[in-house]
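Record GTP-binding protein, 333 aa.
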Amino acid sequence: MDKTIPVYVLTGFLGSGKTTLLNRILDEAKTSKRKVAVLLNEVGDANVEGQLFGKDVPMAEMLGGCICCSIRADLGMELMKLAQEHRPDAIWIESTGIARPLEIIDAVTEASLYERLELKGVVALADGRHLLDRVRIGAGKTYKLMKEQLAAADIVVLNKTDLIGEADREELEQLLRDWNPNARLVSAVQAQIELNAIYGLEDSIAVKEHVHGEHCSPDCKHSHDHGDHVHADHDHVHALTYYLPGPIDSEEFESFVSRLPEDVYRAKGIVTFRDTASRFLFQYAYRESDYMRITPQKTVHDVVVFIGEGFSRHDLIRQLEHLTHQKKGGTYS
Ligand SMILES: Nc1nc2c(ncn2[C@@H]2O[C@H](COP(=O)(O)OP(=O)(O)OP(=O)(O)O)[C@@H](O)[C@H]2O)c(=O)[nH]1
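=>
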């Protein structure tokens, strides 16, 4: 079976430093001999920055629209093409500065229904000075979008701190922690961050260990550190991708779906039901589910994806393992 390819999303408002960070990621990949593919999205019709990446970097371009809306359907196609043609160790998606992150997450997880891809993390950058200006105004569409992008990330990079003073940096760090208490926050100049923080996401997202600390609010419901044992009962994640190891019972699955917690607001998948010997495309949004019988023309894996905020991955995985009658069920990310 093919290996599962991790996918990362790079988001952040226009000019925040996404390409600067991507260049660093590609440099590091070259040094560590990691094959990283890039999916670039530009609102305009020309890919200016992509020309700067090395010729040996597998790259797909999506120009002339934003992946989160007008050309969203193409995202899955491009991801699958990159995966099939290059079998990279990782794929990075650089979204336009105006993209809405949750729509992208939705689109990436859609692609994982058809190819062994797993969304591993969302990295969002903020231009310190620009953010500060927006915070001072405190309203407007741009402010709202910036906040949305930063709130959806697993890692938040407060970039361009060379352009702001120490007190402003501290104010922004506090603000970012308030907006997204679950993300790892890093301040940087020229997007110089420890890249292990990103690749280390693979483990930390799988079981996000949030140790109760100085930045937690009094009503923090996160997991607590009990000596050398940390358990996470309230994992903040955006997506759980679970590859099913085999057919499942349709009634048990429907019952499981009807009991999904409210903070799972979207789910989808391809499932094979033991009792009907058919495969179905399953869709779930805002408590409504839908099943469509399908006959895939090529090999696709049985997989279910859940998107939401604050739901417990641990609980869902346990229930899925129960559905598949396995102590240790399918693979997931
Ligand atoms: N002063 C300063 N400039 C920076 C820093 N990081 C990046 N820049 C510059 O900011 C400009 C925009 O950086 P990019 O990396 O292209 O930003 P981007 O998010 O990819 O921009 P878009 O593609 O327009 O969304 C470039 O000229 C960078 O050299 C920083 O930490 N400090």
